[in-house]
Amino acid sequence: MLELILTRPKERKLIEAAQGLQFLVLDELHTYRGRQGADVALPVRRVRERMAADSLQCVGTSATLASGGTYSEQQAEVAKVATQLFGNTVEPEHIIGETLKRATPDRNFQDLSFIYALRTRVVNPPTPLSSEYDAFIQDPLSTWIEGTFGIEPEPETGRLVRAKPQSLLGKQGAAESLSQLIDIPKERCAAASKEGLLIGHKVKHPETDFAPFAFRLHQFISKGDTVYASLGTEEERHITLQAQQFVPGDRSRILLPLVFCRECGQEYYAVRRTHDFAVDQAKLEPRELSDTQNDNVSESGFLYLNTRNSWPTDPEAMLDLLPEDWIEEHPTRGPRVRQSRKKHLPEPMHFKADGLLGEPELFGHFLPTPFRFCLNCGVSYGSRQRSDFAKLASLGSEGRSTATTILSLSSILKLKGSNLTETAKKLLSFTDNRQDASLQAGHFNDFIEVGLLRAALYKAVERASTDGLRHDELPQRVFDALNLPLDLYASDSAVKY
What we know:
Blueprint lengths: L1 H6 L4 H6 L5 E4 L7 H17 L6 E4 L10 H16 L25 H12 L9 H6 L1 H11 E3 L6 E3 L11 H9 L3 H17 L24 E4 L8 E2 L5 E2 L2 E12 L5 E10 L4 E6 L11 E7 L10 H5 L7 E4 L3 E4 L9 E5 L10 E7 L23 E2 L6 H17 L17 H31 L9 H9 L15
Parallel strand pairs: 1-2
Antiparallel strand pairs: 3-4, 5-6, 5-8, 7-8, 8-9, 8-16, 9-10, 9-11, 11-15, 12-13, 14-15
Helix pairs in contact: 8-9, 11-12, 12-13
């Protein structure tokens, strides 16, 4: 925006009014590289030149410029970056960091009297827990919580700095450390720590009305992996998200990865059909969706096993389900499958739960790669669409925007059902740049709009019952089902009739 102001004729009066500018404040500075650093540094120099600001004082605020090393090392590092960005020498002593102070008394965690008091507090917590500020900060558990999760002295200088984030539970978690310190089971230590953190969030300082512990909880959510299922009917098969070769405890049932039709969601086993000529035995093995290599002993493909909508074995019934461009009209015999398509037809296959072929235990159809059409919904793809990724999806192949939208929507729905105050039922999302923010906001709005419209269509059809809806009735019935407040769509919400 600053670059734009400097170049637009429309802003010339603003530039003229700002001659001799004294201060330029840049918020949220980062450690930049290459062109991105130049995009920040060069406008600063242009401002100084265009506004004849020889004594311009630059101010930068950031929480991310330097995080490692001692405080003096961080000051030196930030000063170096600021000098490059601002085009003026910035001394380390000009870098102002945060100053922290304790809310609770400073105690030595290795002091036996403190350990005894802390152990007594964890074993016999007061009932009810005190919500008085003075009583809370004198609590030995509060002292331990602040010294563990909140602040710690810098080893070199003794200056108070923020403690490194750590988990409460798990191996080497805070609960385990407390358990070793006071010789109490870590389950009780974890429960006491949670209670202390929550009380510390609710207690208010009598003068500032601030809570002594403003803690944050961080949850890291990784993308999904792959769904693995055993061979069998929908009711019998074992389903798991853990990659393994066999069903746990049963080596006679193999696990194969599932992929899903992007049109209807029908699942397919991603398999490789191999043949061992030494014993003259063929079998099914798992494969990655992107692995489409074929050779003399193996062929990549998909296994369709749907007992609710099985693929027919009768050639006449099959003609009604194949894509139109797979069918040709013979002058005397009528419709038939094109000769060039016969080798791509679903191949009937008998197999066992261990993947061996030829055994009449289970029955399905094998489709060679690339995926040409869905046997469940009928969607078909042209010969030029070789990549199966655009046709089938695994559990972990979602887009980042979609994943963010789903997580956001899920969080908002959970907040709505919580006992928090209305003002707290909010979700704030941070992103690195305006382009990402615009993309995500548009994606979220589109998702909500499509979801509302689909729900209204469903509701309108449901209300119509067996009578159905005519095309000319549909818009009004959908509008009625939406039941939107007037101010959401009317330019004048006070209008009548």
